[in-house]
Amino acid sequence: xxxxxxxxxxxxxxxxxxxxxxxxxxxxxxxxxxxxxxxxxxxxxxxxxxxxxxxxxxxxxxxxxxxxxxxxxxxxxxxxxxxxxxxxxxxxxxxxxxxxxxxxxxxxxxxxxxxxxxxxxxxxxxxxxxxxxxxxxxxxxxxxxxxxxxxxxxxx
Length: 156
What we know:
The protein is mainly alpha-helical. It has helices at about 5-10, 30-40, 45-55, 60-70, 75-85, 105-120, 140-155, and strands spanning about 85-90, 100-105. The chain is about 45% helix and about 5% strand. It has a two-stranded antiparallel sheet with strand order 1-2. Helix 2 runs antiparallel to helix 6 (about 105-120). The relative contact order is 0.14.
């Protein structure tokens, strides 16, 4: 038996080098997004729009439409968001003044966005109280699954 035969039968053990990750707050993005959608009764596309507009103090409708092009087609999304109190008119425009209408997010929208960021950054834990968190009422199987994930997320 040669030395070559002996070396062929041995497997090399992989060297594991754990790396410290600088950022991992998107790890629970799906969970936090589900929580926000359930708590505030908002659709996923409306939440995405609010997050896009969150850092913009004022915007025109064409800026809204620009990002809306990346979403499923919904002709009434802008007007529904105004009607539901997510967007409000900041300045009325008109042909007489030569200025276009400007809009801004309402306080309700800003609260939704800041809550989402705080939960993602783990500055705040997601409540496990059924009175303030509709997921913990366990109405559906999905709620039960997310409840378990939230409990694990909060314990870390």
